[in-house]
Here is the input.
Amino acid sequence: MRIYFYMPENCLPPVEEKEDWSKGEPTRLGHPGKASTAQHWIYLTFIRLSKAGVDVRLCHQMPGEGIVVALTGHLINGFRAPESIYLIGVVADGTPHPACHFHILQNAAHSRRLTRSAYIPHWPQPCLIPRHPARGERFENLVFYGDPPNLAPELKNPSFQKLLKNRLDLDFIIARLDRWHDYFEADCVLAIREFGSKPFLRKPATKLYNAWMAGVPMIGGMDSAFNSDGSAGIDYMRCDTRESLWSGLTQFRDDPDFRNSMVAKGRQAAQQFTPESITERWRVLLDSLSIRAPAYMGRHRALRTVDHLAQHMSLLVDRLRGY
Here is the structure.
């Protein structure tokens, strides 16, 4: 069966960036909105699979048949896939759509609890500038990379930044959108969405493996994605309270050997999240689904209707259990 990647034409990357994207080397992953999500999950995946020799097609209209990979955010409520289509939904930061026969999730913990799904990591930050080796054991700059709403409110308060400077002589930097790739002067990455035990099952571990690739130790929250892809206390530090954050930062400041060990372990773990590794995950999954799809589509219509209802109930339970 032919494999299509579907995205509306108005979501294509800007014309001035077309050449970089066509090489599978976008200059950034920083455009806001749904178009950006489609570019990274649909268009970039299509480009990199094509460059790897996988027979995939890009389409801007839903095809009449075949295997179709689409962003669930582009599927309206009540959408039902034609019987000649096997629909793979890329959930990203959204929610699984009941019309999809299979779900691609960016969080391994979420995939473990949702049937007919697979975990595929988000692409790492392109054009990443690693920490400069000359910084050595300096521990001066604590940096958050991401949208400010994804940082715990207490940590955005100027009083935290002042206390951080007074107690640990650390400068806290919230990186601008156009500097999310720049770890040149970063000494530690901070990635705490909120204190507590919320698993954030819709969120990826991108901040973690970007830090690994940049050679910078990271302090993260209790995100299930961090815990699934990393090993707390070995390749990143995990904090659930303000007190544990201060304790962790103090340990990092006072024990450079501990920091260096985490960086070394992170570099090893990062090999699973390179563009080449993620492309291979996609290839293996699509090979598997190319075998599964014809068997599913050959089932009697009544069985497929029952299956659709069961799928709908499964997703309802998933949402009720929370994220």
The chain is about 40% helix and 15% strand. Residues 3-124+274-320 form one domain. The mean pLDDT is 91. The radius of gyration is 21 Å.
